Amino acid sequence: MESHRCQAAVGPLDAVAELPGSKSLTNRALAAAALADGTSLLTGILVAEDTRLMIDALAALGVRTTLDEAGCAAEVTGCRGQLPESEAELFCGNSGTTIRFCAALSALGCGHYLLDGVQRMRQRPISGLVDALKPLGVAVEYLGEQGYPPLTIHAGGLSGGHVAFHDSESSQFISALLLAAPYATRDVLVDVTGTVPSAPYLRMTTAVMDRFGVPVIEQYHPKEAKFIVPAPQRYQAVSYHVEPDASNATYFLAAPAVAGGRVTVKGLGTASIQGDVHFVDVLEEMGCAIERQPDRTTVIGPPEGKRLRGVDVDLNAMPDTVQTLAVVALFAAGPTTIRNVANLRVKETDRLAALARELTKLGAAVDETQSGLTVHPPEGIRPASIDTYNDHRMAMSFAVAGMACDGLQINDPACCRKTFPDFFERFGRLVGAAT
Questions:
Q1: By residue range, what is the domain housing residue 124?
Q2: What is the pTM of this model?
Q3: Could you list the active site residues?
Q4: pLDDT tens per residue, range 233-246
Q5: What is the DSSP string of 299-335?
Q6: Do residue 89 and residue 217 come from a single domain?
Q7: Which pLDDT tens digit goes with each residue over 345-369?
Q8: Are residues 215 and 279 in the same domain?
Q9: CA-CA distance, 328 to 159, in Å (whole number)?
Q10: Does 150 sit behind a cis peptide bond, omega within 30 degrees of 0 on the bond before it?
Q11: Which of 287, 411, 307 lies closest to 5 in space, CA to CA?
């Protein structure tokens, strides 16, 4: 197995980073553009494994996309809400957004659509979405274990009506339904009760829908959310620019918290529609200084001689930042507790269990619960070989520890191709920018 040896920064950082586009926004925009009237131009998109899987799945449904890899752009010729193919097999790898968004889009067709992925995908639940599609007139057949891929969508369109989600395991189930809902025969009313998972991602979905010409009526409360999608409506082709990925930016923004100095991420600031931009609020609580502008964000590490403070934080709204924070917590003066993130157990790997194992290798003590963990930092971090479980976020988050732990090894660095193929090259430039 290949591994990457981390090089610690020899001095405080002083860098400006430009990062690839958001995976979440890219796949949402691809879905809307695929259904739209006309040809959309998407710029600043992420070109990585997850977005290629989305493009390939849409192609299997008959939607043509012309990809300019070098220019990070795509032209998508919309199908006007009528899927050209009535029979298709969609391979979704381990991309949650691809299988969930395309399952909902397939329901708009007229025919039979098989969706499958890698072995790990067959362990990731999809029943929350399937149970929402059934009352709207969609027949679904599980081909293996009930509630999990592979599955066949027997589609004849969406009838519209009322759908309820209670304690949904993933916001992607709700986003998938919302993206398809404009093409129902009548209005779609969605009630979300209990835990409202990753609410900023739902706002991201409705923002993309609005940009493509479909407004959504939405209300958010602590234990519920409501959506009304007037239907039938049609997305309209647009030119849409995808902003940098806020989740992937957390590794760069966390680097000065660990190594000192300052790092600026361009193109991502207070004007962003991504919830993960608020990760810097947690870093600020830990003792970093933050400079916020509409189109950029800068993190300045704690003053020389000062250590980070441990925090107690609910990250339900920002689950993709959990691994980053858990690694930063290694360098704090006290314990850090992360709460309300049980859905991490059904991601690319069981991320809470994986974090507990790998943080322990570096000398930390970790208290793991069903929905979170507490990291007790060690007196000193010892280099280790970090396993990544084919999970891009495990690899990228532990690279942050490598900023202050020379010789830390990260196994299977190629897993980053899922969302950030050249991560280690770009992240390594921060070390070269140390003063």
A1: 23-227
A2: 0.95
A3: 320
A4: 999 999 999 999 99
A5: EEPPPTTPPBPP-EEE-TT-GGGHHHHHHHGGGBSS-
A6: yes
A7: 999 999 999 999 999 999 999 999 9
A8: no
A9: 48
A10: yes
A11: 411
